[in-house]
Amino acid sequence: MAKDSRDTTDTADTRDTTAAGDLGSTGDPAGNGDPAYRLQLAITRLSRLLRQEVQAELTPSQISALSTIRRLGPMTLGELAEHERVAPPSVTRMVDRLTQEGWVERIADPDDRRVCRVVTTARAEEMVGEARARKAAWVEDRMAELGAADRRRVVAAVSAIEQMAGLR
């Protein structure tokens, strides 16, 4: 289970950073002490654990697309491809599947009837909302296991991680 880290500073945290706070290599040939590697590994594992909380028959890419459409509203396939950073043909196939399974609908753009936009269905709204609540509860439970100092560090890191992920 989780290691008890209440209000203590992990010596690896201070050892692996330079005086200026930059990510720096510790000289470990396996990369195990490298903060960039540790961050990548932690995010990958955290992402995998969060995906398990979704409990839906959709792929992670489909859930991501649904979440993007839900968050940003009706969008063209090109806009969706850009936001999801995938090729337009891949988005077309994905939206075709999501449409067939009742997760999204295609609607005509009110300003240009030649343009098609996709919107989430009530079914998708419910599933995405439930998945989001389960994932948030999971994160809250894991954060509650941390000591106060670690919780503050996690909260302080959120903005930087959002920036790294292109979310702000």
Outline:
This protein is mainly α.
Mean pLDDT: 82
The biggest beta sheet is recorded as: 2 strands, antiparallel
Strand order of the largest sheet: 1-2
* CATH class (first level) name of the domain at 60-121: Mainly Alpha
Compute the separation of the termini in Å. 33 Å
Helix content: 55-70%
- Note poorly predicted spans: 1-21
The DSSP helix count reads: 7
Quantity of strands, as a count: 2
Question: What is the CATH T-level topology of the domain at 60-121?
Answer: Arc Repressor Mutant, subunit A
Q: What is the overall silhouette?
A: elongated
CATH superfamily of the domain at 60-121: Winged helix-like DNA-binding domain superfamily/Winged helix DNA-binding domain
Based on secondary structure, the structural category is mainly alpha
Order of helices and strands: HHHHHEEHH
Question: What's the architecture of the domain at 60-121 in CATH terms?
Answer: Orthogonal Bundle
Beta-strand residue percentage: 5-15%
Radius of gyration: 20 Å
Task: Tell me what you see in this structure.
The structure is a single chain. This protein has 168 residues and is mainly α. The chain has a domain at 60-121: Winged helix-like DNA-binding domain superfamily/Winged helix DNA-binding domain (Arc Repressor Mutant, subunit A), CATH 1.10.10. It contains seven helices and two strands, in the order αααααββαα. Strands 1-2 form a two-stranded antiparallel ribbon. The model is unreliable at 1-21 (pLDDT under 50).
